[in-house]
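Sanity check

After download, print the first record. It should look like this:
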Amino acid sequence: MDWNELYNLGLGLFEKATAFFDEALEMKPDPEACYARGYALGNLGRWEEALASYDKALEIKPNYHEAWYNRRFVLGNLGRFEEAIASYDKALEIKPDYHEVWYNRGYALDDLGRWEEAIASYDKALEIKPDDHEAWNNRGIALRNLGRGEEAIASYDKALEIKPDKHVAWYNRGYALDDLGRLEEAIASYDKALEIKPDKHVAWYNRGYALDDLGRLEEAIASYDKALEIKPDDHEAWNNRGIALRNLGRGEEAIASYDKALEFKPDKHEAWYNRGYALSNLGRWEEAIASYDKALEFKPDDAATFYNKACCYALQSAIDQAIQNLQQAINLNPDKYREMAKTDSDFDSIRSHTQFQALIQE
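Expected structure tokens:
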């Protein structure tokens, strides 16, 4: 029997269970039957009916903490997150030592971006069950989202002390170390995650990014390649791989990598920009300009793109177009691009031109 058959069998059982509880409730309203009916309906994805069934159970038995707890799952699926948290709170009023509720309440608050409250909820779960590695891990995520990197790492370390093969905690720890600029440690942490789960695409990708930042470009490319073996449509990995190749002077390969990124995400302005930069380095000015124009279709206010277009035109002694694009770059970021143009050798052919001098002296 395959998974589809098992799934359909399960749905059939829940349908039968619902019909059974409907019959039972016709004879006698019963909170347990209402609860069980809500559970079956929830598994069938019939959220509104499931909610009504839990509410009926709570009308009969207001202190039914399991019903308050499961009700939150239905509300979450209906996108009513604030009500879901209120349902957790009701369960906790009745049973304050309900560890799973504190944990899941933290998770719900996390999803809402209420990270301080989420951490407080995870802390309550950990008071009751100090060896809950999931709570330590998720607490770390909330701390990292608040920019409290060192505390996040300590939380991941607690998770790993309890469950050393928890690849997600190794990965998250690497991410937090990366945020702090501790790149060698981050790579070591990603490597631990990949020892346990070699097909974790995002760990290969972030490992590549960290290696890139360290200037270990060949290793970075190899890491991006591993990420792309697992997820060939990762436009970010193709784009970053292109940057690493360009920095190694492998311009044609870089352009091919940007083209792959754009195959999967044609509106990725960074890839069009980077492609233009690589073409410009190869002296293919017209192609570079065309690529920059595509970047500007998707991000019309990108000063760097206007500036690099100006450079391409200046290198062809196309004075009017060079001035026009440099003017756009300076309008968008006067301090940066006026100063850059003063010493950039790409503008040597038009440096004595009156309009160029007016732009850089303004």
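If your output differs, re-run the checksum step. Summary of this record's structure: Residues 1 and 326 are 67 Å apart (CA to CA).
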